[in-house]
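Q: Given only this backbone (349 positions), what sequence would you predict?
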């Protein structure tokens, strides 16, 4: 398939395909186009975003089956072949002979590249090494000064995954404050969020308003734009003293206080009722994975609050009430809360 035809055919499944590099489009045309068409025949849409538990299980199954077929003795050798130079030639030959690309992506309606990255994250033993020690943080700073953003090289030197070292460096690159937020920091956060939202809104309105009107216009923003898909790394840079995740959590708290007029929605009898409503609604949804939950819709069970607030409250609920929750599936957690915790909460109420 020539490049223009590939772009045209892929656009049906990936609307932003024209912003992708030509070399990536050529690869997608080979690895993904036929799969996407097959999924379309089955009425299955191509997915992006977080992987569900079902998809993660399918990746595990695909990798395990490929190891059985080829006799390669570990997922690490299969997915991080460059770490085993003495076996590299044999592994690459087996991958080619047994159609590794097709096998890895079997049954998963996503671009192959995303499936491959997810598999590497799941099976990289360097990804689960716990907290960084002070010595490791100092090494990371030193290696970054020498090698810049060459995360592959730095990850090999530190025996941590690429993603882990990149994320950790983002966290420690400046003087991060872990204490309570000061008034000055909170004001910086508010200004930073306002700037990015204004810029986005003005770009959207550029064609519909004359510049004279636009310069004097107060932009009206619906509540969803105040907390959905904000560029947190950009906001982190503007605040300067906080990591992006802290900024996101603080902004959720600010919004929640605004939207609820400062009421403590999760305290006392209101808190009990909110927990009861949340468990009941989650149980009624009958979903298998947290990614399938419409958290936006669920926020109405507690009040007019951002979805991140509801997600945080659900996390607190499962951690404090469900024994061995890490080993349970999402649906098992919901069943436990409904069958064991709900009657207790209702009696308390």
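A: Predicted residues:
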């Amino acid at each position: 398939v020539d490049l223009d035809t590939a772009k045209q055919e892929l656009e049906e499944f990936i609307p932003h395909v024209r912003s992708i590099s030509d070399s990536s489009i050529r690869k997608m045309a080979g690895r993904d186009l036929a799969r996407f068409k097959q999924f379309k025949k089955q009425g299955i849409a191509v997915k992006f975003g977080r992987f569900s538990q079902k998809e993660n299980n399918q990746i595990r199954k695909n990798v395990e089956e490929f190891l059985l077929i080829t006799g390669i003795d570990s997922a690490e050798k299969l997915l991080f072949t460059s770490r085993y130079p003495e076996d590299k030639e044999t592994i690459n030959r087996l991958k080619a002979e047994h159609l590794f690309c097709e096998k890895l992506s079997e049954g998963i309606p996503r671009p192959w590249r995303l499936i491959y990255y997810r598999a590497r994250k799941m099976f990289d033993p360097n990804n689960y090494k716990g907290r960084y020690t002070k010595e490791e943080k100092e090494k990371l700073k030193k290696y970054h000064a020498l090698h810049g953003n060459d995360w592959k090289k730095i990850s090999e030197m530190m025996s941590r995954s690429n993603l882990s070292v990149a994320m950790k460096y983002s966290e420690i690159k400046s003087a991060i404050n872990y204490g309570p937020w000061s008034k000055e920091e909170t004001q910086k956060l508010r200004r930073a969020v306002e700037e990015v939202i204004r810029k986005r809104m003005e770009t959207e309105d550029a064609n519909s308003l004359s510049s004279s009107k636009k310069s004097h216009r107060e932009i009206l923003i619906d509540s969803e734009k105040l907390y959905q898909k904000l560029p947190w790394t950009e906001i982190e840079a503007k605040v300067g003293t906080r990591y992006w995740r802290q900024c996101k959590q603080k902004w959720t708290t600010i919004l929640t206080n605004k939207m609820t007029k400062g009421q403590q929605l999760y305290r006392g009898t209101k808190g009990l009722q909110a927990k009861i409503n949340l468990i009941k609604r989650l149980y009624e949804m009958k979903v298998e994975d947290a990614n399938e939950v419409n958290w936006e819709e669920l926020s109405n069970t507690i009040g007019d609050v951002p979805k991140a607030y509801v997600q945080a409250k659900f996390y607190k609920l499962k951690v404090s009430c469900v024994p061995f929750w890490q080993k349970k599936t999402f649906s098992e957690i919901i069943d436990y809360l409904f069958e064991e915790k709900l009657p207790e909460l209702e009696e308390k109420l």
